[in-house]
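Running this now, will post back.
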Amino acid sequence: MHLPVVDFQSSTAPQDFCKSLHETGFGVLRNHPLDQAMVEGIYAEWLAFFKTDAKAQYAQDPVKMDGYF
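Update: finished.
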């Protein structure tokens, strides 16, 4: 599978990002305004969350099509 890399600063970024999500289920951005420390902090929060029992409240719901797999 090819994952397109979308330039956040491009004038077509919104359309390109939506197209990538629609066609692959993934979106990859470059030149976004998030610094590396913030990205690492987000990943640390996700890791901490998925180590807790609270994650069970957000499991995938096939009727509503939300949650995580």
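The longest helix spans residues 36-50. More later if anyone needs it.
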